From TrEMBL:
<keyword id="KW-0067">ATP-binding</keyword>
<feature type="domain" description="DAGKc">
    <location>
        <begin position="9"/>
        <end position="137"/>
    </location>
</feature>
<dbReference type="InterPro" id="IPR045540">
    <property type="entry name" value="YegS/DAGK_C"/>
</dbReference>
<dbReference type="GO" id="GO:0004143">
    <property type="term" value="F:ATP-dependent diacylglycerol kinase activity"/>
</dbReference>
<keyword id="KW-0547">Nucleotide-binding</keyword>
<dbReference type="GO" id="GO:0005886">
    <property type="term" value="C:plasma membrane"/>
</dbReference>
<dbReference type="InterPro" id="IPR050187">
    <property type="entry name" value="Lipid_Phosphate_FormReg"/>
</dbReference>
<dbReference type="InterPro" id="IPR017438">
    <property type="entry name" value="ATP-NAD_kinase_N"/>
</dbReference>
<keyword id="KW-0808">Transferase</keyword>
<dbReference type="Pfam" id="PF00781">
    <property type="entry name" value="DAGK_cat"/>
</dbReference>
<dbReference type="InterPro" id="IPR001206">
    <property type="entry name" value="Diacylglycerol_kinase_cat_dom"/>
</dbReference>
<dbReference type="GO" id="GO:0005524">
    <property type="term" value="F:ATP binding"/>
</dbReference>
<protein>
    <submittedName>
        <fullName>Diacylglycerol kinase</fullName>
        <ecNumber>2.7.1.107</ecNumber>
    </submittedName>
</protein>
<dbReference type="InterPro" id="IPR016064">
    <property type="entry name" value="NAD/diacylglycerol_kinase_sf"/>
</dbReference>
<dbReference type="Pfam" id="PF19279">
    <property type="entry name" value="YegS_C"/>
</dbReference>
<keyword id="KW-0418">Kinase</keyword>
Amino acid sequence: MSVIQQIAATRRHVLFSVNPRAGARFRGELVDQLHDELAKFDLTTEAFTDIQLLRTRAAELLETEQLRAVVAAGGDGTIALLANHTPPGAPLAILPLGTENLLAKYLELSSDAAVLAQIISDGYTQQFDMGEANGQLFSLMAGCGFDAEVVRRLHSDRRGNIHHWSYIKPILDSIRNYEYPELRVRYAPAEQAGDELTEELSARWAFVVNIPRYAGGLNLAPGAEGDDGLLDVCTFREGSLWNGLVYLGGVLLGQHESMQDYSHIRTRRLVITAEPEAPFQLDGDPGGMLPLDICIRPKRLTVLVSHYRAVTQQPQAVESPAAK
């Protein structure tokens, strides 16, 4: 388990990155409330809608040991965007406002502005690994195949905010049109020294899991850990709607690991290709078309966590003198 640390009390600057397209629940009032709550702790806040300006400012404040947090107001895509545009070690505070924020659920964080302000003031942080896919960081997972096709169709037709009901049409369209191309997964086994791709398997569905959370509460890799320096790769062999329903039932019942069609490997690096082409998605956002070269970036993500998480996971961290 990664060490929980506490940010020094001298770090007083909090930066906001707000995604105005983030889900039906997005409300500017929540961001305003968080500004007001942080003012009660005498913390300095700055808001940005331009990610490049935020990147520059975050780097400056981190370098001069003034940065307390960068607030990610949005969904999992907003968190990934910030991770890709802030320097390693910049603490992210999550204000979940998107259609789905699975990382916030994993960390048991809410959209209560007063609660998040207290978390930022307390300053407890925990580091997690991130995956890197074709140069882009992701926190949760990469999906190749049918689910990625649904995401691709959803975003190609996107008009404004996304709701859970927005997925119905792209799911139906994918059911009618997706052809389940064969996916070739080449990987370096976890126990192997080095990252040479010495092993291979084929499948029609592939999920690369870092933190074990997926939409709808599905848990594809129950044993995955977000801070173990490894990626969990879960695949299903056959491609059809019927097979997909069977696999889904297995996951819902927690029985998929015993299925003959299911494979689970752990690795630090893998490459996925397809013939013919197939899409991939990263943390629920479209990534493009395969091939995909993925590796692990240990401890790349630093997030603020609750006092409760700090107490239950590492009681000694709570009394750290650094933030007193």
